[in-house]
Structure formats: structure tokens, C-alpha cells
Amino acid sequence: MSTLSDDILSMDIQQLLDAQAQNIKVAVGGLAALENNTKQQNDAYSHQTLVVYEILIKSLEFQNHINQKLLDEIKKN
Questions:
Q1: What are the per-10-residue average pLDDT scores of the chain (77 residues)?
Q2: Please, which residues have CB within 8 angstroms of residue 2's CB and are 6 or more apart in sequence?
């Protein structure tokens, strides 16, 4: 039964270079997928943040409207 070390020692230089090139391609592909996933998550987070700010603005506008109505009522009396 051969070990990984024996297998590596039995490979010629070109096989080792080809294997290393394949490993690099896999690693680069993994990084590209991770980067794409991170970008999608950032985009989703940005959108969610925007929605929360819009809700906050609408809530403050509504609260301002209520406060203005109360102030008007106080001024009347």
C-alpha cells in the first residue's frame, strides 16, 4: 500500500506542476465563489439597512405629524 509521500515521489515534475495548477484553480474558484457570496450578502445587507432607514424616516414623519396636531390643539386651548 503506497502512502501519499510515495505517490508524490513517484510523480514526475510535470505531474506535480499539473496537480499544483489544478489545486490553484480550485482555490481561485473557491475564492471567487466566496467573493460573489460576500457581495450578495453585502447587497442584501445594504438593501435591508435602506428599508430599515425608510421605515424609521416614515415613523419619525408620522410622529412629527402627531406632535404638530397636538401642538395645534394646545395652542387652540
A1: 66 82 90 88 91 93 91 87
A2: 10
